[in-house]
Each structure stands twice: as C-alpha cells, then as structure tokens.
Amino acid sequence: MDQYAVVGNPIAHSKSPSIHAHFAELTKQELAYSTLLGDEAEFENQVRDFFGKGGKGLNVTVPFKERAYAMCDILSQRAKQAGAVNTLMMGRNGDLFGDNTDGIGMVRDIVSNHGQSLTDKRILILGAGGAVRGVLEPVLSENPESVTIANRTVVKAQILADHFDCLASSFEALEGHFDIIINGTSASLSGSLPPLKGELINAKTWCYDMMYGKGRTIFLQWAHEHGADGADGLGMLVGQAAEAFYLWRQIRPETASLVEVMRQQM
Ligand code: ATR
C-alpha cells in the first residue's frame, strides 16, 4: 500500500492522518498515512530514509518547513515564493520535489467554501511571519485591487511588501476600511489581538483568521463586535491537505463536509 506521513515536532496532535484517511475513503484510494516525529538533528536523514523505503509523499509541519525547502532538488513556484515547503514527493529520477499548499488551501477555502471573491478587493493581511509569506502569492494570483501587510515589526512587513509588490503599514497607521481582513499573526495563541481600529471594518468587510479554535477566535470576536462576518482557519487546514492529496493522487477531494464534521468534534 502507498505510504504517506506528516513529519513535525510535536506531531502527536496532528489532524493530518485523520484528514487524509477521510480523503482516501471519499475518493476510494488505497493508502496509509501516519505520523513521523521529526528529530532536530536528523530531519534530513529521516526524510531521505522515508523516501528510500518507498514512501510516496510527506507533509511537513512546524518547525521543519524551511529545512524541507532547503533540501529539495525541485521547487514549485509557490514554494519558492513562500520560502517553505509543506508537501514533498519523489520524482521518478530520484529528485525531491517540494510544494507549498498552505496558501492555495486558504484561498480555495475563502473562495469556494465561503463564497468570498478576492478579485478587485482591498485586502489587509495582519502579520508578516512565515504563515503570511506562505499565502501572499496565491492571494495575489486572485488579482485583488490592493494588498496591505500590517505588522507589529513594520520592517518585516516592508520586506514582504517589497518582495511581493504590496503595501506595508504599522497597525496604528492603517486608514480607511478594507473588504477582506486576514489575520496571520500568532497573537491569538497568547490570547491577544493587535491594536486594530474599528474603522477598518465597514458593512461589507469579511474577516478570515488563519488560526482556528473551539469557539470564535479572539480576532473573529473583534470582527463580530464591529459587525463583520468571517471564518476561521479550520478550512485552511483541510484545504492545504486537499491540495497535497491532489498533488500525490491527482484527485482533489471535496473539503466542506469534512470541515463540518471536524467542527462538531471540537
Ligand atoms: P508564523 O510561522 O506563525 O507566521 P512567525 O514567523 O513567528 O510565526 O510570525 C508570527 C507573526 O505574528 C509575526 O508577524 C508577529 O509579529 P512580529 O513580526 O512583530 O513579531 C506576529 N505576532 C505574534 N504575537 C503578536 C502580538 N502579540 N501582537 C501582534 N503581532 C504578533
């Protein structure tokens, strides 16, 4: 049976095995998907060993996405832009191919599952870390009117803005309203929220949090208090997995029903 796995550290909490098992059942594919606890000193050897034993594909998660990127022989355009790899597979000639499906997973969730177009929209992205870098190219591919990156450390927003031809700002200097606001900061992990003015939201604004949780995230709570609807990143998690599955099996599984089931189980 074809073998797949997700490698990261920690890894026991990963939802990827159950997501991929669900996809396999849905699409009638015979495959096994397990977890691999990544070792700080041995990561590259673990990857080579996995493929050396005939493994078909690996997902890579924290903290190894940049190391996976560095060891690839061939990279997709979106992996190059992200500077990180979350999906690996082996080419016929033994070349290691790396892709990044995080951004396209998020964009498909926003566009297909939530029916929100990004085209011709004024988009605000909060944060300028790895998560934001990973989504910028797929967001820009939707041809928004503008993308503004706001970050606590403005110079990091400016570096990304220069690279991707967007706008950069501090939170405090943001003016006017945006059509779509995407939270890519890890602030909510510590239960905090960047200092955001309510006027960033108007009647048409829709918000997306790359984070997800049992209830409304603190960012979506802020959006709700200012009258904006939105969604959290559970669909992004399932979406990035669906795109990896598509890369490996050439079948793109439907994601909305699984998100619903996972939501009920949280
Ligand atoms: P990730 O891989 O999740 O993107 P990261 O690269 O460490 O993680 O980036 C974390 C992002 O969340 C950064 O944009 C960080 O802002 P700084 O660049 O100024 O550090 C942002 N962040 C984390 N905690 C925050 C907080 N309490 N308020 C605002 N932004 C925060």
What does this structure look like?
The protein has about 270 residues and is of the alpha/beta class. It folds into 2 domains: about 1-100 and about 235-265, Leucine Dehydrogenase, chain A, domain 1 (Rossmann fold, 3-Layer(aba) Sandwich), CATH 3.40.50; about 105-230, 3-Layer(aba) Sandwich (Rossmann fold). It has 10 helices and 12 strands. It has helices spanning about 15-25, 45-50, 65-70, 75-80, 100-115, 130-140, 155-165, 220-225, 235-250, 255-265; strands at about 1-10, 30-35, 55-60, 75, 85-90, 95-100, 120-125, 145-150, 165-170, 180-185, 205-210, 230. It has a 6-stranded mixed beta sheet, with helices on both faces. It has a 6-stranded parallel beta sheet with strand order 9-8-7-10-11-12. α6 (about 130-140) links the parallel β7 (about 120-125) and β8. α5 (about 100-115) crosses α9. The chain is globular. The mean pLDDT is about 95. 2'-monophosphoadenosine-5'-diphosphate (ATR) binds near residues 129, 130, 153 and 190. Keywords: Amino-acid biosynthesis, Aromatic amino acid biosynthesis, NADP, Oxidoreductase. Belongs to the shikimate dehydrogenase family.
What is the number of E strands?
12
- Tertiary shape: globular
The CATH class of the largest domain turns out to be: Alpha Beta
| Spans where pLDDT lies below 50 across 5 or more residues | none
**Structure class:** alpha/beta
List ligands, each type once: 2'-monophosphoadenosine-5'-diphosphate
CATH topology group of the largest domain = Rossmann fold
| The CATH superfamily title of the largest domain | Leucine Dehydrogenase, chain A, domain 1
Q: Specify the CATH architecture of the largest domain.
A: 3-Layer(aba) Sandwich
The strand line-up of the biggest sheet is 2-1-3-5-6-4
Give the N-to-C terminal Cα separation: 31 Å
The arrangement of helices and strands along the chain is EHEHEHEHEEHEHEHEEEHEHH
User: Please, how many helices?
Assistant: 10
Number of domains: 2
Beta-strand fraction estimate: 15-25%
Cα-atom radius of gyration: 18 Å
Domain SDH C-terminal: 233-265
Domain Quinate/shikimate 5-dehydrogenase/glutamyl-tRNA reductase: 113-188
Pfam families: SDH_C, Shikimate_DH, Shikimate_dh_N
Family: Belongs to the shikimate dehydrogenase family.
